[in-house]
Every structure is written in structure tokens, then in C-alpha cells.
Design brief:
- The complex is a heterodimer of chains A (174) and B (502).
- By secondary structure, chain A is an alpha/beta fold.
- Chain A is 41% helix and 13% strand.
- In chain A, helix 4 links the parallel strand 3 and strand 4.
- In chain A, helix 2 runs parallel beside helix 6.
- The longest helix of chain B is centred in the middle third of the chain and has 29 residues.
- Chain B is globular and about 60 Å long.
- Chain B contains 16 helices and 16 strands.
- Chain B has 502 residues and is α+β, with helices and mostly antiparallel strands.
- The chains are: A alpha/beta (174), B alpha+beta (502).
- Chains A and B meet through helix 1, strand 1, helix 3 and helix 4 of A and helix 3, helix 7 and helix 8 of B.
- The complex binds iron/sulfur cluster (SF4).
């Protein structure tokens, strides 16, 4: 264990053999998100993720935001367990009818000021599941949405760009 | 001897491939259930149509498969679940979607239908209503018992579902799941869709198994149409399937350790998972490799830098992963949480036909890649790891061993792959036909069954995730454990919600 820890400290291979060209851009992007969050909220951004019936593809990419490549926590983005601790709801899926009530309740449990980001094609308009007897359609048909992030699923970089856009939009409104 | 030799049947459906399908009377239906109850056959699938129900059966010894069909002329069929428990959730689903009644059923509570769709029996073709009663969880009685209700929205970034724990102090006396929150009506959306649109839906049945589902769907369509897939496409498909398996196994190994508060492993495997996704993106233009596998082959060839990306991925895994195995093996605090926790009994794994690491960690030696030897696995050499302990630790070790196997499989495929065609266009005007296929997703076997009309549109398609037969075993695995170990047990199963809710 100690050996692995020590090796991790000198791992280095994340930027080796060749750093992916967009990694520095990524760090810059994430830092911008951090600054915008600080400026807007005066603290870090607490995100509550709500799966409203997704295929789970979007969740996988939201998870990836926390891996060592993106490591969004260092920029003040935190995923929280309760909507009561959240500034932002990140909602995925075509809002199945079986999840509509849970989504509404989660929204109502989130204190103001709050923002809703609809993530992925499904969350925008139901995506491929649009028109199903079992789906409501886009998130905005159930709760108000501040921003849509496109993609099926959006990549972690797309997610970061989206969150930055949200923060800039919010501070611009003030 | 084929399965149908011992099951009296009326007539065989000739357009069903590659295995037979036959219509049976009640005697044949009961004979099929008898064979399931005795353990001679394993339940592979159970699905409905507006006026029929189908059972897919596996003879594990001979790798033979057959489908038997009971025509529900009076809107009812003899209950399978009342005699063979693994059929229960599927039977409740058939009732929810089609309104067909399993006669003599012990449990007819709705499963997917939460009374929110605004209609009942949506796939029956009639707009009926059902009597609505509040959902009843099964009782657990005794002094000092209390209930803990969790979900559908969980604390983490995971899919929605409801867990009802009854506990005595710290110890779980009973866990009951209620799912269906992610039910999207995929099977109805598929009806009338052309192959391309239906394949996209299949891809999004369970995002973590996008490749496996697209693969199963494509193979079912190809079986129905009786067409061959070009050799290069066969290798590209399996290449994607193994990269998907790697990515998920890395994610799972880390997540299980993380739930035992060992975040270091999570960080390390997270790096390997991201490497897989980036290699996939480089090679196939999509991190989860959605919409690349299509009926007839693949939609696009691997990019020029895709093969070097794959080789680099293998090199990285070979360098880093052995150290992580050592780390797992030598961390006592971790082993303390995983060894003897959440045991699935071998008998249950066999009875339920549990696939993937859940079955293989409990002694069930089954892997669709080997049992059905579908191309290109018939040309590749690999081992299927099996353990007996059935605990969280065993499920971790199966994943570890499977990572090693997948690395070797990918290496073999990269060596064997040759330039060539990548798609045979599905022929038009074949007339109605039916196909069945199974592929091995990271969490177990995925079944795809479909019927196509003469215009190559889907008349009916059923997809069955391995989770259907794993979720109930999670209920048994948690008994006697403490609630605090539930996340660990749950993560070691990592069952799909979307894949099972459809
Ligand atoms: S947008 Fe795509 S990846 Fe996300 S939940 Fe919908 S189908 Fe899945």
C-alpha cells in the first residue's frame, strides 16, 4: 500500500507520455467555473444530481467529472447527497412518469436561489423516448430549467462548459 | 436431444432462428415449468405479446436454447412464478404491460405500473383500466423491528429505485426492492420502428452496456434475416464489447472499494476507466461507443489512430493493473469489509440462472461468450473465472480476472483483424421472421428477441437484462448483514435499473 501511495505521488503518467491536447484547456475551463462560482455564489457550487429515468449513460459521464483527469472538486464543484444542500439540480432522463413526482419533490426541497440544468438529449425534449406513454418529455415540462446541456451523453468537457455558461448567465443577470 | 423433444408442442415456428420456437398447449407449458423447477433447464427469458406469452429456456449442459409459446386465448396463462420464483418479476411485468392474467398466481402486485401512465396495460392494444390500490410491501413481523425506506432518489449519482429495509437494530431482516422508476416504454417505442431507429433504442436501454445491447439486438436481427456479418465487423464489435467490459469493471472495482472507504483504489481505477473511454472515443468517435454496432455489421470503421490507441491502452493496463490487484489483496481493512459480506448462495445463483460476476462468484459456470461461442469468440482463447465463496470479495475477484481476460482478448483481436468490408446491408422483402440472440455484457447475459415484418420494421422486440435475475438475489444477499454494508453489497452487484425497467 505504501508503495502504491508513493508511486501515486510520482505517478506523473497523467501528463505522460503526451498530455492530451485539451487537458490544459480543461484545467482553464474548470478554473473559470471556480471563479464564476465564487463570484456568483461567494462559495463553491453544490450540485445535486437527479436521474429522472435516464439510460444511465449521462450518469456515467457526470461521474467522470470526479475522476483524476477532471477532478472538479478542486474547482469548487461538489456533488451533494441532499437537495437541501444544493444550489444546482443536474437532471437527466426523459422524465419518466414514474419519476415525475420524485423530481418535483426534489425541486421543492431545494432551497432558493436554485438553478436547474437539464443534461443530455433526453432531458431536453425526451430524446429518443419522446412520445412514450411512460415519459413526460423534457425536464422543463415538469420544473423550470435554466440551462440545457446537449449530448447523448454530453462529455465531461461539455458538462463543464455548460456549468460555466450557467454561472456566467446567472452573474450576468444580477 | 433438443429441449423441445421433452416438451409436447403443437407446432414449430419455422421463421424463428437460430433456435426453435414452438407453440404449446397447457400440458407443454406445464412440462416446461416442470423442467425449470427440477433444475434441468434455466429460465432465459419470459415476455408477452397482446395474446401470447413466451418462455426462453436454456439447457446449460448442451448449450441448447428453445422458446415455447402459450397462446392466451382467454386472456390468461398458467402462472410460471407460482412454481418457479425467478419468473416472478417478469410475470408481474407481463401483467402490467399486457393485462394477461397468470392464473393461480400468488403475487399479482404491479411491478412497473406505478399508476402514473394515465392508462393500464399499454402494450395490450386496448385502453383498459385497472383497479388501483396502494402498493403493499411484504410484511416482516417481530418485536423491535423498524423500517427504513430509501429512494427512489438516492444519495449518490445513481439510478432511481426504492429499497424497503426492515431491520432489527443494525441487522437487516428483510430487503424488498420496488423498481420501475426508469420505465420508458422502450418495447412499445420499438414497435413499428425501422432497424436503424430500433438499434438506437437498444443502444440506450442501459447506457453502461450500450455496446452489449446493440450487439445483442444486431445479432437477433441478423439471425432473423439469416445474414452474415463481414469478418472485420465481427472483430470490431467484440473489440468494443471488451473495451466496454474493461471500462465498467474498472469503474466497479473502484466504486466497491470506495464504499468500503478506500478511495485510493477508486482514484486509480477511475484513471484506467477514463483511459478506456478516451481510447474508445479516439477509435470509434464516441466515449460509450453508442450507435457504432448496427444490424449487418458496424456503421463505421475504427479510425486510423484507433488501433495505436488500443495498443497504448493495453500497455497502460498491463503496467498499472497488477499493482492495483496487489493493493486490493494486501489491504486488510478492505478485505475486512468484503470477505464473507453479502453472500449469494450457490443454489440460488443456479436456480435464478444468475449471469455475470454474480453467478460466477457463486459457482455458476456460465458465460454467453463461451457457451454460445458466437463469433469472434469461437476463434479466440480465453478463460471464464469461477469462484465459490459468493461474497463481495469473490465478485471483486471475478472482475479482476475478467479484466485480465479482456486485455488478452483485445490483444488477440488486434492481431487477427484484417482490412475488409464492415457491413452487409439487411436484405429487403424477406417476409416476416424472428430472431433470438444472447451476448455477454459486463454484468451478464443480455437477451434480445425480435420479430420483423417484410419491410424490416420491428413488430415486437423484447430485451432482457441480466439484472432481472440478479436483483432478487441482492435481496437474499443482504439478509443478516448490517445496513451499513448494503452499499457495498449493492455496488458489488451493480444491477441495472434502466436495463430492467426498460
Ligand atoms: S441523453 Fe443519451 S446518454 Fe443521456 S440518458 Fe438520454 S439516452 Fe442516455
Amino acid at each position: 500500500m505504501r508503495k502504491t501511495l508513493l508511486e501515486s505521488l510520482t505517478y506523473g503518467s497523467l501528463t505522460e507520455p503526451a498530455p492530451a491536447p485539451d487537458d490544459s484547456a480543461l484545467a482553464e475551463l474548470a478554473a473559470k467555473v471556480d471563479r464564476a462560482a465564487q463570484a456568483t455564489l461567494g462559495r463553491s457550487l453544490a450540485i445535486r444530481e437527479v436521474d429522472a429515468g435516464s439510460c444511465n449513460g449521462c450518469e456515467l459521464e457526470i461521474h467522470a467529472l470526479s475522476n483524476a483527469f477532471y477532478d472538479v472538486e478542486r474547482f469548487g464543484l461538489r456533488f451533494v447527497a441532499s437537495p437541501r444542500h444544493a444550489d444546482v439540480l443536474l437532471v437527466t432522463g426523459p422524465v419518466t412518469k414514474n419519476m415525475r413526482q420524485a423530481l418535483e419533490r426534489t425541486y421543492n426541497a431545494t432551497p432558493d436561489p436554485k438553478w436547474v440544468v437539464a443534461v443530455g438529449g433526453c432531458a431536453i425534449d425526451g430524446g429518443l423516448f419522446r412520445g412514450s406513454y411512460a415519459c413526460v418529455g423534457g425536464v422543463s415540462e415538469t420544473i423550470p430549467v435554466d440551462l440545457h446541456i446537449k449530448g447523448c451523453p454530453p462529455s465531461p468537457t461539455d458538462l463543464l462548459k455548460g456549468l460555466l455558461a450557467l454561472l456566467e448567465h446567472v452573474s450576468g443577470k444580477r | 436431444m433438443g429441449i423441445l423433444d421433452s416438451i409436447p408442442h403443437v407446432n414449430a415456428i419455422l421463421s424463428h432462428r437460430p433456435w426453435p420456437r414452438a407453440v404449446v398447449t397447457e400440458a407443454g407449458w406445464q412440462a416446461a415449468i416442470d423442467r425449470l423447477v427440477e433444475g434441468g433447464l434455466t429460465l432465459l427469458g419470459f415476455w408477452g405479446e397482446p395474446a401470447a406469452v413466451h418462455l426462453a429456456l436454456l439447457d446449460g449442459g448442451s448449450a441448447d436454447v428453445a422458446v415455447v409459446t402459450y397462446e392466451c386465448t382467454a386472456g390468461a396463462f398458467p402462472s410460471v412464478a407460482s412454481r418457479h420464483l425467478p419468473a416472478l418479476r417478469l410475470e408481474r411485468t407481463i401483467h402490467d404491460l399486457f393485462g394477461l392474467v397468470p392464473s393461480a398466481a400468488d403475487d399479482l402486485r404491479p411491478w412497473l405500473d406505478h399508476d402514473a401512465w394515465g392508462q393500464s396495460y399499454p402494450l395490450s392494444g386496448r385502453n383498459a383500466s385497472r383497479e388501483v390500490r396502494p402498493y403493499q410491501f411484504l410484511p416482516a413481523e417481530g418485536e423491535a423491528l423498524h423500517q427504513v425506506a430509501v429512494g427512489p432518489v438516492h444519495a449518490g449519482i445513481i439510478e432511481p429505485g426504492h429499497f424497503r429495509f426492515t431491520a432489527n437494530g443494525e441487522h437487516v431482516v428483510r430487503l424488498e426492492q420496488w423498481l420501475g422508476y426508469t420505465h420508458k416504454g422502450i418495447e412499445l417505442l420499438m414497435q413499428g420502428a425501422n432497424l436503424e431507429a430500433a438499434a438506437k433504442l437498444a443502444n440506450r436501454t442501459s447506457g453502461d452496456s450500450a455496446v452489449a445491447y446493440a450487439f445483442a439486438f444486431a445479432r437477433a436481427a441478423e439471425a432473423a434475416l439469416d445474414i452474415q456479418v463481414p469478418r472485420r465487423a465481427i472483430f470490431l464489435r467484440a473489440l468494443m464489447a471488451e473495451v466496454e467490459r474493461l471500462a465498467n469493471h474498472f469503474g466497479d472495482i473502484g466504486a466497491i472499494c470506495n464504499d468500503a472507504s478506500f478511495a485510493l483504489m477508486h482514484a486509480q481505477t477511475g484513471i484506467l476507466r477514463e483511459r478506456c473511454l478516451r481510447a474508445a472515443d479516439t477509435a470509434f468517435g464516441h466515449r460509450l461507443m453508442m450507435d457504432v454496432i448496427v444490424p449487418g455489421g458496424v456503421a463505421r470503421d475504427v479510425s486510423a489512430d484507433g488501433i495505436p490507441a488500443m495498443r497504448a491502452l493495453l500497455a497502460e493496463i498491463r503496467k498499472v493493473f497488477p499493482r492495483l490487484i496487489e493493493l486490493y489483496d494486501n489491504t486488510a481493512s478492505l478485505q475486512d469489509r468484503t470477505v464473507t459480506t453479502g453472500i449469494v448462495k450457490a443454489d440460488y445463483a443456479r436456480q435464478f440462472g444468475a449471469g455475470g460476476y454474480v453467478g460466477r462468484a457463486s459457482g455458476r459456470d456460465f458465460d454467453a461468450r463461451r457457451t454460445f461461442a458466437y463469433a469472434p469468440y469461437d476463434q479466440l482463447s480465453f478463460e471464464v473465472p469461477v469462484l465459490e465463496a459468493g461474497d463481495v470479495n469473490a465478485r471483486v475477484w471475478i472482475r479482476i480476472r475478467e479484466v485480465e481476460q479482456s486485455v488478452e482478448l483485445i490483444a488477440q483481436m488486434l492481431d487477427l483483424m484484417e482490412p475488409g468490408e464492415i457491413r452487409n446491408a439487411p436484405p429487403a422483402g424477406r417476409g416476416g421472421c424472428e430472431g433470438l440472440a444472447l451476448t455477454e455484457a459486463f454484468r451478464g447475459d443480455v437477451l434480445a428477441w425480435l420479430r420483423l415484418d417484410g419491410e424490416l420494421r420491428v413488430e415486437r422486440c423484447h430485451l432482457r437484462d441480466a439484472s432481472w435475475f440478479q436483483w432478487p438475489l441482492l435481496e437474499t444477499a443482504i439478509e443478516g448483514n448490517i445496513i451499513a454494508d448494503f452499499p457495498l453489497c449493492n455496488k458489488s452487484f451493480n444491477c441495472s435499473y434502466s436495463g430492467a425497467d426498460l
